[in-house]
Amino acid sequence: MGTLNLESVSFRYPGRGETVLDKVSLAIPAGGIFGLLGPNGAGKTTLISILAGQLRGATGSISAGDEPLEGLRRRRPHSLGLVPQEYAFYPMLTCAENLRFFGAVQDLAGARLRERVAAAARFARIESALSRRAGRLSGGLKRRLNLAIGLLVEPEILLLDEPTAGVDPQARAFLLESIRSLAGAGRTILYTSHYMEEVEAICDRVAIIDHGRVLVSGALSEVTRDGSGLQELFMQLTHRSLRD
Amino acid sequence: MRRLLALWEKEWLALSRDVLGLAVLFLMPAAFIVVMSLALSDVFKGGAARLTGFAVMAADPKLAERLVRSLSGEGFRAAPAPADEAAARDGVRRGTPSLVLLVPRDFERALNAPLDGKNTPPKLTLLADPALPPTQLLAFRQRVLGVALALRVSAMMRRAGIAADADAFDLKHAATLNVETIGGTGRPSSVQQNAPAWLIFGMFFVVMPISSLFIVERREGTLARLVSLRVPFSMLLLGKVGPYFVVNLAQGALMLLAGRTLVPWFGGETLALPARWDLLAAVTACTSVAAIGWGLFVAVCSRTLEQATVIGGVGNILAAALGGIMVPRFVMPETMQKLSEVSPMAWALDGFHAVILRQGGAADIAAPCVKLLALALALFAAALWVHHRRRVLAPAQ
Do A55 and B5 touch (CB under 8 A)? Predict the structure, then answer.
């Protein structure tokens, strides 16, 4: 599919003064994991919402390879997958019912639907919880179900918005390992997190944004080449004052 | 179509696991139908079901007995005469009996005097309990005047040398009058008013489960995820129509069953069934889509569950109070009756009454059905418009 290119993407909510994204330009290559970092309110979730088609009205251009992202999504509606930071599924439905539902609304049916539900459940290791109500699962299982839903149609572009928030170290280690394994096969992955060690562990490229602007962007090895860690760089660029 | 079926199945599964929500949708209107049908049964019979006690106080025992005999019946029952006027006033104040007719000593002499301008008509006094319905008081007043007229006519005939008993001139012997109500039973009975009325109220209560699940979907990010999967928002709304349409139809069937079985089991009347089931289905369907449209509009406009509960609940109660659900419209003053025409519940009730009560045809339900369908379309369009604006204006929902 090629690189996901953002050129001078700006956005502000109508009726509000401040610009949430200010000429954001990023190149997110296929086949790797791109870490998007920033303090609370920096514009990470807004950027992901624009890419996922949830917010309209952004200026600038977004393209996937040679064609506009919107054009790609019209041509192949399920080329982009989102794993939001919320548990975006139905707590009163079982895991299997959730997977079947989200598969069906993405036009999966019959044997293909069964096959993809089984594959996604196997990948996220939630087979044993398929018959349990999603609302009664542990935090780690909920995160894994959230990830499995995002992988049902094997999207070429995967947006992961803090996919490990609030889970125990074992579940985090499993999720990181799983996400790393997804990066192959030409898939483009945009990953946001507040955990610097996670980003250092799985991302090959990073960008730090604050107040809607890109402060630094590039290969992880380049941006941290002066020897300071990602945590130190992040604090230097975004300052230490509390944001919320 | 596959997506729509998936949305319907999801909505159905979610609803079927909300036991409390289902109980509100089915048990609440059933309970209202039984309780209100029984509680208001006398009101709908015009008070005729309850016997009103009356007494006659006259110095002449023969005259008192004749008046008691003529005035008894058709909802009025004679009670023993009080000892004196003070006791009569005290008794009426307590409601036992509700009416006391005070006949003056010179009543018969005054009746016999010719009406030539020199004599005044005899004066009667009726003591009445203030709690007595005005229609009952009016009916008794007419009975008293009828009996007085019969006595006066017989006195005039006696003066003319013609022997005649006053009983012969009693109004009930004047003619046989058959009252024939055209198109069913005319005014609704208690169960005919309350069964469709509380069914409509229950149907509009789908606003609660529709909005609560929708707000959970928005709060948990599920709606945003579905939007990112390019599921059109109009389809997400349509995905809620199918299951709640089935729920509304089931409510209709169960409420008719309650009117046919539960209400008579508790001693009330049996709900009369319509001659045209297809028209009943049409009115139920139109009411359902209007109720679902209202639910979708409240769901999209409300930002929290609390807002949805207040807007949906208070909106329903106001529409019910105005639309003749809680108080029948025929007892409202004219201004309120006109005002009630803005309530969708009044339109729905008109439709149900046209089918169940007046045994009407398609033309009789056309106006209420068109109004309900137009409202449903307007609310659906308004929900889409509000979402469209919010999607631009608001952060990811």
Answer: no
Residue listed under structure tokens 């994204």: A21
Residue in B3, B13, B393 closest to A93 by CB: B13
Test the A interface: residue of B2, B7, B8, B10 with most A CBs within 10 Å: B10
Q: Are B273 and B256 in contact (CB under 8 A)?
A: yes
Q: What is the C-alpha separation between B225 and B216, in angstroms, rounded? A: 13
The pTM (predicted TM-score) of the whole model is 0.74
For residue B282 the two structure tokens come to 């049409």
| Domain regions of chain A by residue span | 84-154
Instruction: Give the tens place of pLDDT for each residue, B260-271.
Output: 888 888 887 888
Angle between helices B207-219 and B305-322 (to 10 degrees): 160
The encoded tokens of residue B285 equal 């369907």
Q: Say which CATH class B46-173 falls into.
A: alpha beta
C-alpha dihedral sign at B82, B85, B87, B93: positive
- How many Å lie between the alpha carbon of B396 and the closest alpha carbon of chain A? 6
Q: Where are the domain boundaries for CATH 3.40.190 in chain B?
A: 46-173
Q: What is the DSSP string of B279-324?
A: HHHHHHHHHHHHHHHHHHHHHHH-SSHHHHHHHHHHHHHHHHHHTT
DSSP structure class, residue B38:
H
Could you tell me if the ipTM is greater than 0.85?
A: yes
Give the phi and the psi of residue B54 in degrees, each rounded to 5.
Answer: -140, 160
Closest Cβ opposite residue A54 in set B220, B222, B396? B396
- Where chain A has pLDDT below 50, the residues are none
Rounded-to-integer distance, Cα B92 and Cα B237, Å: 62
Phi, psi dihedral angles at B126 (to 5 degrees): -115, 115
